[in-house]
Amino acid sequence: MDLQKKYGFWTATAMVVGIVIGSGVFFKADDVLKASNGSLPTALLAWLIGGTIMVVTAFVFSNIATRIEKVNGVVDYFEEAYGEKAGYIVAWFMTIIYYPTLVAVLAWVSANYTAGLLNMPDAVWYISAFYLVAFFLLNCISPVLAGKWQVSATFIKLIPLVLVAVVGTAGGLMSGQTLESFATNAKNITDSTGGLAVATLSTAFAYEGWIIATSINAELKDAKKTLPKALVFGTLAVVLIYMLYYLGISGILSNDQVIAAGDKAPVQVISKVFGNVGGTLLTVFVIISCLGTLNGLIMGCTRGMFSIASRGFGPAPDLFKVVNAKTNSTINSAIIGFVLSTAWLVVWYGNFHGWWKFMDISELPIAFLYVIYIALYIWVIRTFDDLNPISRIIAPVLACSGSLFIIYGAVQKSMFIQFLTISIIIFIVGFLLMNKKNR
C-alpha cells in the first residue's frame, strides 16, 4: 500500500519550522556571545552565517529528497549514493552517537529551566533523569500520544520567541540599549576560546533538525515543487525569527548581562518588562518548547536500532526489528536508545563535575553530521546531471564551504580529539557488528 499524497506546502513548512525551533536558541545565546568575544555584531554574524548554511544545505537536500521516496532521510540518501554498507554506517552513527547525545543534552536543558522555575537548583540532574525516563516510556507505551504532544509543543514554542523579539526589540530601540549593545563588547568573559567559526558552530545546534522534514516527501502533493519551497521558506523563516529574538535580548540586557544570565536570559528579559509573573509564564513556555524537542529526538532515538535491523544489518536484527503488537512501538530498539542516552547523560554530567575538560556533545556530533553532508554534496555534483548549474554545482559548493566552516569550528573545541577517538572506536565496533550475511 502506497502512502497517500496528503500534505501541502504549509504543512511541510510548519514541519520544518516546528522541528528546528526548540531549545538551542534559548540556551546557546550566551555561548554564541562568549565565542564572539562579547561582540554583538560578531554574534549576529555567526547566527546569520549558521542560518545561511542551513538554508543552502536545505536547498541541496530538497533536490535529493524529491528523487528518493523513502522515509529515513539522510540514511536513505547515503545508502542510495554509496551503497547499503555505507548507509548502515551512517545509521550506526545516528543511533549510537547523534540521537542519544542530543537527547541527553535536551533532557538536561529541560531540567535546567524546570529547576529554575521550581527554585530547586540542586535537583537538575534528578529532573534530567526523570524526563529521560518519562518520555522514553511515553514513546514506548503510546506513540500516538507522543505524536500529539509533538504537534502541541510546536505551536507553544513560538510564543516565547515572538514575545522576546517584539518586546525586547521595541524596548531596546526606545531606551537605547540596542545601540549600546552593538557598541560595547562584554567584559566579563574569562574563558573565551572563540572566534567566528566557533560561534557559528554554537548556532549549529539551534539550527539542527530540518533534515527530518525530508521524510514526508513521499506524502507531499507535487513534491518536486512543494518540498524545495517548504525547505527554503521554512529555514528562512527560522533564521528571521532567531535574528529578531537575539536582537530582542540585546535590547533589554547588556552583553555582560546576557553572559551573566546564561540560559535564563529570555526569562530575565520578560521579567524586566512584565514582572515576575510574566517571567514565570515564559519559563513554562520555554520548558514546553524544550520538552517538545526532547520528545522529537526520542521519537528518532527509539527507532534507531529498528532502522538498522529492518535492513538486516547490525547485532540481533531479528530482535530489534520487532514491533510490539499492542502499542505499535519498537520497544526493544527503544531500550537500547534509552541506555545509550543515559550513558551520554553521564558524560554530560562529568563536564560539570570536573571529570575532564568540557566535551561539548551538544555541538561535536552535529559537526560530524556535516562530514556526511559533504559526501552527499559530492554525489549531487557527480550524478545529478539533469539539474541546472545553480542546483547542481553552485548550491552544493556553497553548502560544502559552509559545512567545512562548521567542521573547522569543531576542530577548535576543547576535547575534540578525545571525541573523535571515541567516535572512531564506535565506528569500528559498528563494522565488527555488521551482520555476517550482508558482508
Question: Topology of this structure?
Answer:
Elements: H1 9-20, H2 24-27, H3 29-35, H4 40-65, H5 74-82, H6 84-118, H7 124-141, H8 143-156, H9 158-175, H10 177-183, H11 196-207, H12 223-252, H13 255-261, H14 265-301, H15 304-309, H16 317-320, H17 331-351, H18 364-383, H19 389-411, H20 416-432
Outline of this structure?
With 439 residues, the protein is mostly helical. It has 20 helices and no strands.
What does this protein structure show overall?
The chain has 439 residues and is mainly alpha-helical. The chain has a single domain (9-438), classed as Amino acid/polyamine transporter I. It is 74% helix and 0% strand. It contains 20 helices and no strands. It has helices spanning 9-20, 24-27, 29-35, 40-65, 74-82, 84-118, 124-141, 143-156, 158-175, 177-183, 196-207, 223-252, 255-261, 265-301, 304-309, 317-320, 331-351, 364-383, 389-411, 416-432. The chain starts with 8 loop residues before the first helix and ends in a 7-residue tail after the last helix. The mean pLDDT is 83.
Largest sheet, if any? none
The parts where pLDDT drops under 50 for at least 5 residues are none
Query: What is the C-alpha radius of gyration, as a whole number of Å?
Result: 21 Å
Mean pLDDT: 83
Full CATH superfamily name:
Amino acid/polyamine transporter I
| Shape, per Cα inertia axes | globular
Which percent range fits the helix content?
over 70%
Tell me the number of structural domains. Answer: 1
CATH class: Mainly Alpha
Distance between the termini: 31 Å
Q: List the secondary-structure elements in sequence, H or E.
A: HHHHHHHHHHHHHHHHHHHH
Percent strand: under 5%
Quantity of strands, as a count: 0
Helix/strand structural class: mainly alpha
The CATH architecture comes to Up-down Bundle
- Tally the helices: 20
CATH topology call? Amino acid/polyamine transporter I
